[in-house]
Amino acid sequence: MKIPFVDLKAQYRAIKPEIDAAIAEVIEATAFVGGPAVAEFEQAFAAFIGAGHCVGVGNGTDAIELALRALSIGPGDEVITVANSFIATSEAITLAGAKVVFVDCDPATANIDTGRLAAAVTSRTKAIVPVHLYGRPADMAAIMDVARTHGLKVVEDCAQAHGATLDGRKVGTFGDAGCFSFYPGKNLGAYGDGGAVVTDDEALAGRVRKWANHGRLSKYDHEFEGVNSRLDGLQAAVLAVKLRHLDSWTEGRRRAARLYAEGLAGSGLDLPGDPAGGTHVYHLYVVRVAERERIQAALTEAGITTGVHYPMALPNLTAYRHLGHRPQDFPVASDHQDRVLSLPMFAEITAEQVEWVCRRLRAAL
Ligand SMILES: Cc1ncc(COP(=O)(O)O)c(C=O)c1O
Fold it and tell me: Cα(88) to centroid of ligand 1, in Å?
């Protein structure tokens, strides 16, 4: 049985008439950058997240960079983030002009180890960028505690966690700003690049919008040099259609996670799950195995596509060699990089497909 890692074609087929009509409408209106489709999506996404404001931007990396810049974080400042994420998280901090300070992840959750947070704070620390990795909310209560104690801003990286909750609140509403990616493979994905910053702070939303649009006050009046990072009309129209289906797709992912948990019970693997009082949205279903290459090869042989998120912890990347870290400085992230294995996960995955993955994975183990 052939099982892809994600199946964007199956998703498109299920909503083709809605998507095609929404795209045609934008083309007919020739509202390609900004315009009504962007405004409507921003409103709908803010309401979905439960935030006062949403600013559409060019991608998720820009969302983090622009949120930091709008919070006046830049050269001379330190920003703390987690050692296990996609490089976009730390890259955005550097792009804003600040210095990245990595903290190891928690062995059980793979999110930032909040027990190590306070020790990473110095007199230069200005912000924390927690990541809700794989779709599992980070421990926002503990993170906000440290932030309040030390007067730090918090910019949540929600790129993998659209709709994930803690105590009934969606991620992106705990910190000063929440940053989302709409890269096509994300839980809410556009048909190209896209991103958004959500916040309850109207002034902050206004500053992000200015930053994303050449520091513009009006058409040819500019308060400062910003960047060009705007959500386009076609992507906003696609996203608005898909947002209407997001809750049911999340339920599909959570059903698949339950089937994986049943199928892999007793296998000895640590399986991902909900945090206390919260919900995981399973952007990725990540287990940890010994002899990953052998297991991955056995699954490939059985027609099952898997992934590795991520094969190198951020501090171990060549890009951060200048920081002088050693793998043993981040023992948990450095251990995870050798053992993490992402199993096929998408809303449309069938019970039969999950059962096949579990059977072949058990056989390989
Ligand atoms: C954790 C995380 N942060 C940030 C990003 C950046 O998003 P984008 O690719 O839209 O720039 C991604 C996307 O891959 C991500 O996975």
Answer: 5
